[in-house]
Amino acid sequence: MSLRIAVVNGDGIGPEVIPEAQKILEHFLPDADFYEVELGLAKWERSGSACSPDDIRELKGADAILFGAVTTPPDPNYRSVLLQIRHELDLYANLRPIRPLRSSGQGSPADMMIVRENTEGLYSGIEEIGEERSTTLRVVTKAGSKRIAEKACSLILERNSKSPLVIGYKGNVLKSDLLFRDTCSEVAASFGIQTKAVFIDALCLDVLQHPKNYDVIVTTNMFGDILSDVCGYLTGGLGMLPSANIGDTHAFFEPVHGSAPDIAGKGIANPVAAIRSAAMMLEYFGMKREACLVEESIADLINSGVCTPDLGGCESTSSFGNRLLAAVCKKE
Ligand code: ATP
Ligand code: MG
Protein backbone atom coordinates (compact mmCIF):
# COMPACT_ATOMS: atom_id res chain seq x y z
CA MET A 1 0.00 0.00 0.00
CA SER A 2 1.30 3.43 -0.86
CA LEU A 3 2.23 5.88 1.87
CA ARG A 4 -0.31 8.52 2.81
CA ILE A 5 1.24 11.90 3.58
CA ALA A 6 -0.85 14.75 4.97
CA VAL A 7 0.38 18.22 4.02
CA VAL A 8 -0.55 21.27 6.08
CA ASN A 9 0.68 24.51 4.47
CA GLY A 10 -0.74 26.71 7.25
CA ASP A 11 -0.34 30.47 7.55
CA GLY A 12 2.30 33.11 6.79
CA ILE A 13 5.36 31.66 5.07
CA GLY A 14 4.01 28.08 5.47
CA PRO A 15 2.39 28.03 1.99
CA GLU A 16 5.69 29.32 0.53
CA VAL A 17 8.16 26.89 2.09
CA ILE A 18 6.08 23.70 2.26
CA PRO A 19 5.64 23.21 -1.53
CA GLU A 20 9.46 23.23 -1.83
CA ALA A 21 9.69 20.46 0.77
CA GLN A 22 6.84 18.53 -0.86
CA LYS A 23 8.71 18.61 -4.21
CA ILE A 24 11.60 16.73 -2.61
CA LEU A 25 9.26 14.18 -1.04
CA GLU A 26 7.43 13.66 -4.33
CA HIS A 27 10.78 13.05 -6.00
CA PHE A 28 11.76 10.26 -3.61
CA LEU A 29 8.25 8.93 -2.95
CA PRO A 30 6.62 9.04 -6.39
CA ASP A 31 3.89 6.57 -5.35
CA ALA A 32 2.89 8.31 -2.14
CA ASP A 33 -0.55 9.82 -1.80
CA PHE A 34 -0.21 13.49 -0.74
CA TYR A 35 -3.35 15.17 0.56
CA GLU A 36 -3.80 18.67 1.94
CA VAL A 37 -5.38 19.43 5.28
CA GLU A 38 -6.23 23.09 5.86
CA LEU A 39 -5.54 24.31 9.40
CA GLY A 40 -4.66 27.57 11.08
CA LEU A 41 -5.58 31.20 11.57
CA ALA A 42 -6.94 31.83 8.07
CA LYS A 43 -9.32 28.91 8.51
CA TRP A 44 -10.29 30.09 12.00
CA GLU A 45 -11.14 33.57 10.72
CA ARG A 46 -13.28 32.07 7.98
CA SER A 47 -14.98 29.19 9.80
CA GLY A 48 -14.46 29.78 13.53
CA SER A 49 -12.36 26.63 13.85
CA ALA A 50 -8.61 26.39 13.31
CA CYS A 51 -8.56 22.59 13.60
CA SER A 52 -11.77 20.53 13.73
CA PRO A 53 -12.30 16.93 14.89
CA ASP A 54 -12.54 15.98 11.18
CA ASP A 55 -9.12 17.53 10.58
CA ILE A 56 -7.68 15.50 13.45
CA ARG A 57 -9.16 12.34 11.91
CA GLU A 58 -7.56 13.22 8.57
CA LEU A 59 -4.20 13.72 10.28
CA LYS A 60 -4.52 10.44 12.16
CA GLY A 61 -5.06 8.62 8.87
CA ALA A 62 -1.64 9.69 7.55
CA ASP A 63 1.59 7.71 7.74
CA ALA A 64 3.33 11.04 8.29
CA ILE A 65 2.43 14.73 8.32
CA LEU A 66 4.36 17.58 6.72
CA PHE A 67 3.44 20.81 8.48
CA GLY A 68 4.32 24.43 7.67
CA ALA A 69 3.42 26.89 10.41
CA VAL A 70 0.29 28.40 11.86
CA THR A 71 -0.10 31.87 13.34
CA THR A 72 -1.36 31.80 16.93
CA PRO A 73 -3.13 35.07 17.80
CA PRO A 74 -2.97 36.24 21.44
CA ASP A 75 -6.72 35.60 21.77
CA PRO A 76 -7.78 33.63 24.87
CA ASN A 77 -10.53 31.91 22.81
CA TYR A 78 -8.06 30.53 20.28
CA ARG A 79 -6.76 27.09 21.07
CA SER A 80 -3.23 26.49 19.80
CA VAL A 81 -3.43 24.15 16.81
CA LEU A 82 0.01 22.71 17.48
CA LEU A 83 -0.78 21.93 21.12
CA GLN A 84 -4.04 20.31 20.06
CA ILE A 85 -2.30 18.10 17.48
CA ARG A 86 0.56 17.14 19.79
CA HIS A 87 -1.99 16.16 22.41
CA GLU A 88 -4.47 14.32 20.15
CA LEU A 89 -1.76 12.38 18.29
CA ASP A 90 0.33 11.94 21.45
CA LEU A 91 3.47 13.22 19.74
CA TYR A 92 5.53 13.14 22.88
CA ALA A 93 9.05 13.46 21.46
CA ASN A 94 10.14 16.61 19.69
CA LEU A 95 13.46 15.94 17.95
CA ARG A 96 15.48 18.94 16.87
CA PRO A 97 18.81 18.17 15.21
CA ILE A 98 21.43 20.93 15.32
CA ARG A 99 23.90 20.42 12.53
CA PRO A 100 25.28 23.49 10.80
CA LEU A 101 25.46 23.05 7.03
CA ARG A 102 27.67 26.04 6.34
CA SER A 103 31.36 25.29 6.35
CA SER A 104 32.95 27.18 9.22
CA GLY A 105 36.47 26.26 8.19
CA GLN A 106 37.05 24.84 11.69
CA GLY A 107 36.97 21.11 11.12
CA SER A 108 33.90 18.95 11.65
CA PRO A 109 30.81 20.93 12.56
CA ALA A 110 28.75 20.42 15.70
CA ASP A 111 26.18 17.64 15.49
CA MET A 112 23.69 17.40 18.30
CA MET A 113 20.11 16.36 18.86
CA ILE A 114 17.80 18.17 21.24
CA VAL A 115 15.11 15.82 22.53
CA ARG A 116 12.31 17.96 23.90
CA GLU A 117 9.42 16.53 25.91
CA ASN A 118 6.39 17.64 23.99
CA THR A 119 3.23 16.95 25.98
CA GLU A 120 3.63 18.27 29.51
CA GLY A 121 5.77 20.81 31.42
CA LEU A 122 4.56 24.38 31.03
CA TYR A 123 2.56 23.42 27.94
CA SER A 124 0.11 21.19 29.79
CA GLY A 125 -2.65 23.73 29.19
CA ILE A 126 -3.64 23.97 32.85
CA GLU A 127 -4.02 27.70 33.38
CA GLU A 128 -6.06 30.16 35.40
CA ILE A 129 -6.26 33.57 33.86
CA GLY A 130 -7.24 36.50 36.08
CA GLU A 131 -7.01 40.27 36.16
CA GLU A 132 -4.64 40.36 39.12
CA ARG A 133 -3.08 36.92 38.99
CA SER A 134 -2.61 34.34 36.27
CA THR A 135 -1.04 30.94 36.71
CA THR A 136 0.22 28.19 34.44
CA LEU A 137 0.81 24.82 36.02
CA ARG A 138 4.03 23.01 35.15
CA VAL A 139 3.43 19.26 35.10
CA VAL A 140 6.23 16.68 35.18
CA THR A 141 5.22 13.03 35.41
CA LYS A 142 7.31 9.93 35.89
CA ALA A 143 5.67 8.24 32.88
CA GLY A 144 6.19 11.30 30.66
CA SER A 145 9.82 11.66 31.71
CA LYS A 146 10.44 7.94 31.27
CA ARG A 147 9.23 7.73 27.69
CA ILE A 148 11.15 10.81 26.55
CA ALA A 149 14.30 9.52 28.26
CA GLU A 150 13.86 6.17 26.50
CA LYS A 151 13.62 8.01 23.17
CA ALA A 152 16.79 9.98 23.94
CA CYS A 153 18.68 6.84 24.98
CA SER A 154 17.67 4.93 21.83
CA LEU A 155 18.95 7.89 19.81
CA ILE A 156 22.30 7.72 21.61
CA LEU A 157 22.53 4.04 20.65
CA GLU A 158 21.44 4.74 17.05
CA ARG A 159 24.02 7.49 16.73
CA ASN A 160 26.70 5.19 18.14
CA SER A 161 27.53 7.94 20.55
CA LYS A 162 30.04 7.58 23.35
CA SER A 163 28.91 10.84 24.97
CA PRO A 164 26.78 10.97 28.10
CA LEU A 165 23.11 11.88 27.85
CA VAL A 166 22.93 15.54 28.86
CA ILE A 167 19.85 16.43 30.92
CA GLY A 168 18.88 20.11 30.74
CA TYR A 169 16.95 21.05 33.89
CA LYS A 170 16.57 23.63 36.65
CA GLY A 171 16.16 21.50 39.75
CA ASN A 172 17.62 24.06 42.14
CA VAL A 173 14.54 26.24 41.64
CA LEU A 174 11.91 23.94 40.13
CA LYS A 175 11.48 20.87 42.31
CA SER A 176 9.41 19.24 39.55
CA ASP A 177 12.65 19.02 37.59
CA LEU A 178 14.20 16.69 40.16
CA LEU A 179 11.68 14.04 39.12
CA PHE A 180 12.63 14.68 35.51
CA ARG A 181 16.36 14.44 36.21
CA ASP A 182 16.11 11.33 38.39
CA THR A 183 13.81 9.50 35.98
CA CYS A 184 16.11 10.28 33.03
CA SER A 185 19.11 9.03 35.05
CA GLU A 186 17.31 5.78 35.95
CA VAL A 187 16.34 5.12 32.35
CA ALA A 188 19.85 5.91 31.10
CA ALA A 189 21.35 3.54 33.67
CA SER A 190 19.10 0.75 32.38
CA PHE A 191 20.53 1.42 28.87
CA GLY A 192 24.09 1.47 30.27
CA ILE A 193 24.39 5.17 29.35
CA GLN A 194 26.05 7.82 31.54
CA THR A 195 24.25 11.10 32.21
CA LYS A 196 25.31 14.66 32.92
CA ALA A 197 22.69 16.97 34.41
CA VAL A 198 23.26 20.65 33.58
CA PHE A 199 21.25 23.71 34.62
CA ILE A 200 19.40 24.93 31.56
CA ASP A 201 20.59 28.55 31.79
CA ALA A 202 24.26 27.51 31.94
CA LEU A 203 23.57 25.00 29.17
CA CYS A 204 22.24 27.72 26.82
CA LEU A 205 25.59 29.49 27.04
CA ASP A 206 27.80 26.41 26.99
CA VAL A 207 26.22 24.88 23.85
CA LEU A 208 27.15 28.06 22.03
CA GLN A 209 30.69 28.16 23.42
CA HIS A 210 31.46 24.43 23.10
CA PRO A 211 28.91 22.96 20.68
CA LYS A 212 31.13 20.00 19.81
CA ASN A 213 30.98 18.77 23.41
CA TYR A 214 27.31 17.91 22.98
CA ASP A 215 25.51 15.01 21.40
CA VAL A 216 22.04 14.17 22.72
CA ILE A 217 20.36 16.62 25.12
CA VAL A 218 17.04 15.73 26.75
CA THR A 219 14.91 18.41 28.36
CA THR A 220 11.41 19.48 29.31
CA ASN A 221 8.98 21.24 27.02
CA MET A 222 9.67 24.97 27.26
CA PHE A 223 13.39 24.61 28.02
CA GLY A 224 13.71 22.53 24.86
CA ASP A 225 11.89 25.15 22.84
CA ILE A 226 14.19 27.91 24.04
CA LEU A 227 17.37 25.84 23.80
CA SER A 228 16.71 24.90 20.19
CA ASP A 229 16.05 28.52 19.17
CA VAL A 230 19.30 29.45 20.93
CA CYS A 231 21.06 26.78 18.90
CA GLY A 232 19.63 28.39 15.77
CA TYR A 233 22.65 30.67 16.15
CA LEU A 234 24.91 27.71 15.32
CA THR A 235 23.06 26.83 12.13
CA GLY A 236 22.56 30.17 10.42
CA GLY A 237 19.21 31.14 11.87
CA LEU A 238 15.65 29.96 12.24
CA GLY A 239 15.30 29.31 8.53
CA MET A 240 17.69 26.36 8.86
CA LEU A 241 16.20 24.34 11.75
CA PRO A 242 14.05 21.26 11.11
CA SER A 243 12.15 19.17 13.63
CA ALA A 244 10.19 15.96 14.03
CA ASN A 245 7.40 15.26 16.49
CA ILE A 246 7.18 11.55 17.08
CA GLY A 247 4.80 9.40 19.10
CA ASP A 248 4.31 5.66 19.16
CA THR A 249 1.82 5.71 16.26
CA HIS A 250 2.07 9.09 14.50
CA ALA A 251 4.84 11.30 13.11
CA PHE A 252 4.76 14.96 12.29
CA PHE A 253 7.54 16.99 10.62
CA GLU A 254 7.79 20.79 10.75
CA PRO A 255 10.33 23.60 10.57
CA VAL A 256 11.18 25.06 13.98
CA HIS A 257 10.32 28.57 12.81
CA GLY A 258 6.84 29.98 12.97
CA SER A 259 4.70 31.64 10.33
CA ALA A 260 6.95 34.77 10.18
CA PRO A 261 4.15 37.14 9.10
CA ASP A 262 6.69 39.96 8.66
CA ILE A 263 8.21 38.32 5.58
CA ALA A 264 5.17 36.39 4.31
CA GLY A 265 4.09 36.89 0.70
CA LYS A 266 7.46 38.23 -0.43
CA GLY A 267 8.91 34.98 -1.74
CA ILE A 268 12.06 35.41 0.35
CA ALA A 269 11.51 32.84 3.14
CA ASN A 270 14.24 30.25 3.49
CA PRO A 271 12.74 26.83 2.69
CA VAL A 272 15.71 24.88 4.13
CA ALA A 273 14.12 24.22 7.55
CA ALA A 274 11.01 22.82 5.84
CA ILE A 275 13.08 20.77 3.36
CA ARG A 276 15.28 19.34 6.14
CA SER A 277 12.08 18.42 7.97
CA ALA A 278 11.05 16.48 4.86
CA ALA A 279 14.48 14.80 4.94
CA MET A 280 13.77 13.76 8.53
CA MET A 281 10.54 12.20 7.26
CA LEU A 282 12.51 10.23 4.66
CA GLU A 283 14.78 8.99 7.44
CA TYR A 284 11.71 8.04 9.49
CA PHE A 285 10.58 5.91 6.52
CA GLY A 286 13.98 4.17 6.58
CA MET A 287 15.40 6.20 3.66
CA LYS A 288 18.57 7.36 5.38
CA ARG A 289 20.63 7.45 2.19
CA GLU A 290 18.08 9.73 0.50
CA ALA A 291 17.90 11.95 3.58
CA CYS A 292 21.70 12.35 3.57
CA LEU A 293 21.62 13.16 -0.13
CA VAL A 294 19.20 16.02 0.53
CA GLU A 295 21.32 17.33 3.41
CA GLU A 296 24.50 17.16 1.34
CA SER A 297 22.88 18.88 -1.63
CA ILE A 298 21.64 21.71 0.62
CA ALA A 299 25.14 22.08 2.09
CA ASP A 300 26.73 22.17 -1.39
CA LEU A 301 24.38 24.90 -2.57
CA ILE A 302 24.70 27.06 0.54
CA ASN A 303 28.45 26.70 0.70
CA SER A 304 28.68 27.90 -2.89
CA GLY A 305 26.59 30.97 -2.08
CA VAL A 306 23.25 29.76 -3.44
CA CYS A 307 20.84 30.80 -0.67
CA THR A 308 17.97 33.05 0.36
CA PRO A 309 18.45 36.64 1.70
CA ASP A 310 18.46 35.61 5.40
CA LEU A 311 21.78 33.85 4.66
CA GLY A 312 23.07 36.73 2.53
CA GLY A 313 22.05 35.30 -0.83
CA CYS A 314 19.60 36.41 -3.50
CA GLU A 315 17.59 33.25 -4.28
CA SER A 316 13.83 33.33 -3.87
CA THR A 317 12.07 30.57 -1.93
CA SER A 318 11.07 28.74 -5.09
CA SER A 319 14.29 29.30 -7.05
CA PHE A 320 16.23 27.79 -4.16
CA GLY A 321 13.80 24.85 -4.11
CA ASN A 322 14.18 24.31 -7.86
CA ARG A 323 17.96 24.48 -7.71
CA LEU A 324 17.98 22.03 -4.83
CA LEU A 325 15.85 19.52 -6.70
CA ALA A 326 18.19 19.80 -9.68
CA ALA A 327 21.21 19.30 -7.40
CA VAL A 328 19.61 16.23 -5.79
CA CYS A 329 18.85 14.70 -9.20
CA LYS A 330 22.42 15.35 -10.34
CA LYS A 331 23.91 13.77 -7.21
CA GLU A 332 21.83 10.58 -7.41
P1 ATP B 1 4.93 32.86 14.99
O1 ATP B 1 4.09 33.63 15.94
O2 ATP B 1 4.14 32.10 13.96
O3 ATP B 1 6.00 32.05 15.65
P2 ATP B 1 6.92 34.88 14.58
O4 ATP B 1 6.62 36.28 14.21
O5 ATP B 1 7.37 34.55 15.94
O6 ATP B 1 5.71 33.96 14.12
P3 ATP B 1 8.98 33.21 13.57
O7 ATP B 1 8.63 32.38 12.41
O8 ATP B 1 9.07 32.55 14.89
O9 ATP B 1 8.02 34.45 13.55
O10 ATP B 1 10.35 33.88 13.19
C1 ATP B 1 10.97 34.97 13.83
C2 ATP B 1 11.70 35.79 12.77
O11 ATP B 1 12.70 34.99 12.14
C3 ATP B 1 10.76 36.22 11.67
O12 ATP B 1 10.29 37.50 11.94
C4 ATP B 1 11.55 36.16 10.41
O13 ATP B 1 12.07 37.42 10.09
C5 ATP B 1 12.68 35.19 10.72
N1 ATP B 1 12.43 33.88 10.06
C6 ATP B 1 11.75 32.84 10.55
N2 ATP B 1 11.69 31.83 9.68
C7 ATP B 1 12.34 32.25 8.58
C8 ATP B 1 12.63 31.65 7.31
N3 ATP B 1 12.22 30.42 6.98
N4 ATP B 1 13.33 32.38 6.41
C9 ATP B 1 13.76 33.61 6.71
N5 ATP B 1 13.53 34.22 7.87
C10 ATP B 1 12.83 33.57 8.82
MG1 MG C 1 7.93 32.54 16.77
UniProtKB/TrEMBL annotation:
Q: What are the UniProt keywords, alphabetically?
A: Oxidoreductase
Q: Name one Pfam family in it.
A: Iso_dh
Under InterPro entries, the record lists:
IsoCit/isopropylmalate_DH_CS, IsoPropMal-DH-like_dom
List, in alphabetical order, the Gene Ontology terms for molecular function in this entry: 3-isopropylmalate dehydrogenase activity; isocitrate dehydrogenase (NAD+) activity; magnesium ion binding; NAD binding
Family matches, as PROSITE patterns: IDH_IMDH
- EC assignment: the record states 1.1.1.85
Keyword Zinc-finger tagged = no
Presence of keyword Oxidoreductase: yes
Matching entries from Gene3D superfamilies are given as: Isopropylmalate Dehydrogenase
Any one biological process term the GO annotation gives: isocitrate metabolic process
EC class name: oxidoreductase
Looking at the record, the residues that make up the Isopropylmalate dehydrogenase-like domain are: 4-324
Q: Family, per the entry?
A: Belongs to the isocitrate and isopropylmalate dehydrogenases family.
Q: Which PANTHER family match?
A: DECARBOXYLATING DEHYDROGENASES-ISOCITRATE, ISOPROPYLMALATE, TARTRATE, ISOCITRATE DEHYDROGENASE [NAD] SUBUNIT ALPHA, MITOCHONDRIAL
- Could you tell me what this protein is called? 3-isopropylmalate dehydrogenase
Per the UniProt record, the source organism is Methanocorpusculum labreanum (strain ATCC 43576 / DSM 4855 / Z)
